[in-house]
Amino acid sequence: MRIRRSNMAAMGWPDCAKSLKGVILDLCGVLYDSGEGDGVAISGSAAAVKKLKESDLLLRFCTNETQATREKFVGKLQRLGFDISVSEVFPPAPAAIAVLKERGLRPHLLVHDGLLNEFDGVDKTNPNCVIIGDAAENFSYKNLNEAFTVLIGLANPVLFSLGQGRYYKETDGLKLDVGVYMKALEYACDLKAEVIGKPSSTFFQSVLNDMGLQPHEVLMIGDDLVNDVGGAQQCGMKGVQVRTGKYRPSDEKHPTVKADGTVDNLAQAVDMILSQRAH
Amino acid sequence: MRIRRSNMAAMGWPDCAKSLKGVILDLCGVLYDSGEGDGVAISGSAAAVKKLKESDLLLRFCTNETQATREKFVGKLQRLGFDISVSEVFPPAPAAIAVLKERGLRPHLLVHDGLLNEFDGVDKTNPNCVIIGDAAENFSYKNLNEAFTVLIGLANPVLFSLGQGRYYKETDGLKLDVGVYMKALEYACDLKAEVIGKPSSTFFQSVLNDMGLQPHEVLMIGDDLVNDVGGAQQCGMKGVQVRTGKYRPSDEKHPTVKADGTVDNLAQAVDMILSQRAH
């Protein structure tokens, strides 16, 4: 018996675009590639963001960016030509600060120098937990050893990792991300880190709450199959992967995560979404 | 029904010392604590090694030391007062070089500067595998990223880790060991490293072959519960842990590895062994 293809795909990509109420975009690898200075915008992405903003879809940005304060990296994106404001962007650091307050924890920070200001108002004396972000060059042997020494000295060691990415793409090549150092400290201290950021469902849900939408009404578009697409799907959203940023062809044969759709770039994704909704 | 304690312990520590033919000692944390300069000898250990050498027991040293060539670290131990020679010592680097030859592999090295000479005769052009050792300060973000870039660019990435220790003790505190960076690269590249060194049974067996003894005839003494004691037990030897070096009280309640005996230090272990054999 033949099943009509249009029915099979009815709830899939890109047909699902018809019933969407909102879109969440990842930043690095979707809007731009990071690197020296501001990095470079990905061709067509600025125009695509503009089209989404002019549509009836709600738009938010969900990122594991932890190399700078929100103000700094939103400023960078504006300079690259993107229509984006701080209130539309959800990174892990503010979510981490909320968790610290809730649980009365004082962090030892192993993060990028650019992120330190986000933690200005946070008590860091006599630390009883460790927070790691994408510290890049700050991931020296000395600094990792220092974070380890704090953790191993605690009766109940708590490690927060701002994301769990393996690597990301900069203009001069792939770079190791925070998840790699999370695994390092997990092994050193024989503990399990708490991830704050994508792919945590709690984190995605906080963005949905801000939008006032249900997961099935929202599509996530990212370049990271596991953290963007897989995380969004776990949370009940559809997830589409772009073939920019850290995308690798092997992602399309991943053993556990299957994107609802794979597109060449954000411009193509947005054109497909808007053309579905035009019918 | 009461079971007589002497029967229960008949095959255990220290009774097993009666039938031993050889002893294998770990170096760092058993003979000495590493640190600035040569580090410091652990009290009573030099005399204990001397007593073992004067006994009828065969003696070898099995170490995951990869910060220096054998000649260098054996020289250090001699300066610290130990009667020890290069031919009695089994570290991972020479075992790794044998594996490279056997499999026609050319390594990219992320190791301590002090170890580089061991690999002088090895072809390192156009690398098709990565070897990591206890590189200490060489575990910079830049160097780890470089090793990652080699691995991620290979169709069949091969990572050799010279040991898998979590941390070791230096005179100024605990230091992260190679296993931590092995886990980091395993996660980054989604692969499983091949461990050369303790606790690999292949590695322990190469020492037993050199001694011409069976596993049940040999006792391993180390400060690392998992890699020294657990590794030796997996190989069929008895394993005793010393409460020096990286020993932590929680080791005595470890969920999976139980030492055959735990002693304060090497001096006490050797006295117990020799007194059992005197009866």
UniProtKB/TrEMBL annotation, chains A, B:
<comment type="function">
    <text>Phosphatase that hydrolyzes imidodiphosphate, 3-phosphohistidine and 6-phospholysine. Has broad substrate specificity and can also hydrolyze inorganic diphosphate, but with lower efficiency.</text>
</comment>
<keyword id="KW-0460">Magnesium</keyword>
<keyword id="KW-0539">Nucleus</keyword>
<dbReference type="Pfam" id="PF13242">
    <property type="entry name" value="Hydrolase_like"/>
</dbReference>
<dbReference type="InterPro" id="IPR006439">
    <property type="entry name" value="HAD-SF_hydro_IA"/>
</dbReference>
<dbReference type="GO" id="GO:0004427">
    <property type="term" value="F:inorganic diphosphate phosphatase activity"/>
</dbReference>
<dbReference type="InterPro" id="IPR023214">
    <property type="entry name" value="HAD_sf"/>
</dbReference>
<dbReference type="GO" id="GO:0046872">
    <property type="term" value="F:metal ion binding"/>
</dbReference>
<dbReference type="GO" id="GO:0005829">
    <property type="term" value="C:cytosol"/>
</dbReference>
<keyword id="KW-0479">Metal-binding</keyword>
<dbReference type="InterPro" id="IPR006355">
    <property type="entry name" value="LHPP/HDHD2"/>
</dbReference>
<dbReference type="GO" id="GO:0016791">
    <property type="term" value="F:phosphatase activity"/>
</dbReference>
<dbReference type="InterPro" id="IPR006357">
    <property type="entry name" value="HAD-SF_hydro_IIA"/>
</dbReference>
<keyword id="KW-0963">Cytoplasm</keyword>
<dbReference type="InterPro" id="IPR036412">
    <property type="entry name" value="HAD-like_sf"/>
</dbReference>
<comment type="similarity">
    <text>Belongs to the HAD-like hydrolase superfamily.</text>
</comment>
<protein>
    <recommendedName>
        <fullName>Phospholysine phosphohistidine inorganic pyrophosphate phosphatase</fullName>
        <ecNumber>3.6.1.1</ecNumber>
    </recommendedName>
</protein>
<dbReference type="Pfam" id="PF13344">
    <property type="entry name" value="Hydrolase_6"/>
</dbReference>
<dbReference type="GO" id="GO:0005634">
    <property type="term" value="C:nucleus"/>
</dbReference>
<keyword id="KW-0378">Hydrolase</keyword>
